[in-house]
Amino acid sequence: MLISLDEDQVALLTAVEQRRVHTDPRFTQPDFERLPGQPRHRRATQRLQRLKDYRLVELDPDTEPDRWGVRPYRLTGLGERMLAAAREQEAAAAADADQQPSGR
């Protein structure tokens, strides 16, 4: 299966890796992303669905839900490999951009 991710999906994988994405069963669209440096959360249910479909993320089975039932997501092995590949592509693109002669 060919998996293609856009920048938003790679950013969401990074947020999952950083333990900033969780599910809260008190809501009908229960998935949220905690924004870095801010006290608020952003809904993530629709953005997370494709990553779940590809089995790149899962609820962390090693973490017990808190008193409200909130549990974090984690990357699967495939998710870790996809994020590493995306980072390699970003680094290669940045290196190519640095080697391009300026148009002056």
Q: Could you please describe the fold and organization of this structure?
A:
The model has no long low-confidence stretch (mean pLDDT 92). This protein has three helices and five strands; from the N terminus they run αβββαββα. The chain has helices spanning 7-17, 45-53, 77-99, and strands at residues 21-23, 31-34, 41-43, 57-59, 71-75. By secondary structure, the protein is an alpha+beta fold.
What's the tally of helices?
3
Mean pLDDT level: 92
Oligomer: single chain
| Strand element count | 5
DSSP strand (E) fraction?
Answer: 15-25%
Order of strands in the sheet with the most strands? 3-2-1-5-4
Characterize the biggest β-sheet: 5 strands, antiparallel
Low-confidence stretches: none
The geometry reads as: elongated
- Give the distance, in angstroms, between the N- and C-terminal Cα atoms: 44 Å
Structural class: alpha+beta
The helical percent reads 40-55%
Short description:
The protein is α+β, with helices and mostly antiparallel strands and about 100 residues long. Helix content is about 40%, strand content about 15%.
Layout of helices and strands, plus pairs?
Layout: H1 7-17, E1 21-23, E2 31-34, E3 41-43, H2 45-53, E4 57-59, E5 71-75, H3 77-99
Antiparallel strand pairs: 1-2, 1-5, 2-3, 4-5
Helix pairs in contact: 1-3
